[in-house]
Amino acid sequence: MSRIQLGASLSEKLAQTLETCIREGQLKTGEKLPTENALVELHGVSRTVVREAFSRLKTLGLIETRQGSGAYVKALPHPEAGKLKLIPDGSVDAVLKVVEVRRALEAESAALAAERHTAKSMQKIKQAMRAIDKAVANGGDGVSEDVAFHAAIAQAANNPFLLDTLAYLNQFLENATRVTRANEATRADLEEAVRHEHQAIIDAIEAGDVKAARSAGTKHMLNAAKRIGNADPAFWSSQGRALANRLRSDLSQKPAGTASKKTKI
Hints:
Blueprint: H1 10-23, H2 36-43, H3 47-59, E1 63-66, E2 70-73, H4 92-116, H5 119-137, H6 143-157, H7 160-184, H8 188-207, H9 210-229, H10 233-253
Antiparallel strand pairs: 1-2
């Protein structure tokens, strides 16, 4: 396993390196991943970075962790699963359609999480929220943290089929989130609105209010679509357009059925 190239998001780069090893067969189904200590020494990163990378791989459905034993490679999805084609065309409309997919998934994830969450899963959701705040405070875009926040909600929903669907769609959701958060970062009031929407979802889930959680999840996605639709034309003609076009190029060049390389775009 080659050393990762250090950059702004070490956990993302480490996750990408491990994902490549898994998909190329260097790490096979059922095989144990290197220990935290081994990865810390090999890549010169912290334990936190390693744990965040493992969390991302779990979200993608590539690994499973076993208490007291370590992380192991899961069986890759059947090749037929790769027949679903989702390649945005570089337009505002394409991003909005991905947001529509998120609306359907996130609303039910929040509702199920309100019904089924445990103290432990609730703690993970709150930790994910704090991670977004920390990333933004440090000048980051909070994209990977945003995706992790919604993944934590899906995990609290305790539905393996929902988790598998989100794992497959995560590559598209993450890149759509890059566009939406890039727009939201252009104005402080938009960033604050997003935070309030996230908090409303957390409050409803913690209260066990299924109806309120579903409503908060739906409202968050509807507002995300509105923020994209109302974006300053200058944003979309430059940064937003560049992000979407780059996403289109990256996805159109990769083999069908493979996961996104999660390029920081």
